[in-house]
Amino acid sequence: MAKGSKKQKPPNEKGYIQPRDIVDEMRDSYIDYAMSVIVSRALPDVRDGLKPVHRRILYTMHEMGLTPGGKYRKSATVVGNTMSRYHPHGDSSIYDALVRMAQSFSLRYPLIDGQGNFGSIDGDSAAAYRYTEARLSKIGQAMLRDISKGTVDFIENYDTTKKEPVVLPSPLPQLLLNGCLGIAVGMATSIPSHNLSEVIEATVYLVNNPKTTTEGLFKFIKGPDFPTGGIIYDKKSIVAAYSQGRGPIVIRGKAEVVEKGKLFQILISEIPFGIKKSTLVQQFANLVSERKLKGIKDIRDESDKEGLRIAIDLQKNAHPQQILNRLYKWTSLQTTFRLNMVALAEGIQPRVLSLAEVLNYFILHRKEVITRRTRFDLEKAKERAHILKGLHKALGKIDLVIKIIKSSKDRGVAQKNLMQKMKLSEIQANAILETKLSALARLERQKIGKELKEMLARIKELTAILKSPKKIKEVVKKELNSLKQEFGDQRKTKIYVQKVGEIIEEDLIPQEPTVITLTQGGYIKRINPAIYRLQRRGGKGILGMKIGKNDIVEHLVFANTKDPLLFFTDSGKVFRILSYEIPEGKRVARGRSICNFLEISSQERVLSIIPFPKENKPLGARYLIMVTKKGIIKRTSLEDFENIRRSGLIAIKLKKGDLLQSVATSTGQDSVLLTTRRGQSIHFKEQDIRVMGRTAAGVKGIGLKKGDEVIGMDVIKSRVKPQVSKVVLVVSENGFSKRTDLKEYRIQKRGGIGIKTAKITKRTGELIASKLLGEQEDLLLISQKGQVLRTKLVSVSKISRVTQGVRVMRLKQGDSIASVVCI
Question: Which of 386, 375, 286, 276 is nearest to 327 (CA)?
Answer without folding.
Answer: 286
